[in-house]
Amino acid sequence: DIQMTQSPSSLSASVGDRVxxxxxxxxxxxxxxxxxxxxxxxxxKALIYSASRLQRGVPSKFSGSGSGTDFTLTISSLQPExxxxxxxxxxxxxxxxFGQGTKVEIK
Amino acid sequence: EVQLVxxxxxxxxxxxxxxxxxxxxxxxxxxxxxxxxxxxxxxGLEWVSSISSTSAYIYYADSVKGRFTISRDNAKNxxxxxxxxxxxxxxxxxxxxxxxxxxNWGLGTLVTVSS
Lengths: 107, 115
Known about the structure:
Helix content of chain B: under 10%
Strand content of chain A: over 45%
Distance between the termini of chain B: 40 Å
Distance between the termini of chain A: 36 Å
Number of strands of chain B: 11
Oligomer: heterodimer
Number of helices of chain A: 0
Radius of gyration of chain A: 13 Å
Structural class of chain B: mainly beta
Shape of chain B: globular
């Protein structure tokens, strides 16, 4: 199975900050990575697929990059509604696997 | 608007069974892969199972293989998960999710396995 390792596990940031979350795959998965946001008490929401393609309706402050084994999610200017947990996932092969999550908290 | 509404969760004893359902609307259900993903309380996301549009291809996580069965009824825009031989570690919120890239998520149905 492909392991997806996110870093950091948590971070503290202020409104307006630029935030980057990293996800590393245990083997080459081309660009088959998705990113999800989960606010407390809510279902996850899809943000990005194929490493850099924004889901419909997702604001352009979210961006994704990477290929092979190393991927990043960047939030350009953190807003109060962005404080949440973010997960990466590979959609290259089955079993689908998620990263352990990165919790973005208010500083 | 895509809507996914899960149901069928509840409290069940270890070794028992439950059947989860997901009612889909707002899109052409029969054209899409659909998935189940679960989340134990306070934990991360775990993929459980996926089924292709015509049910020709079915995949399971090792943790549920042989105990859970995914199925769908395209005429009724519905997805199912038959869960047998339930264990405490199956306790989680179960989400119905559309597409190969997990585009749309339901709100989930809670399964608690406890004596």
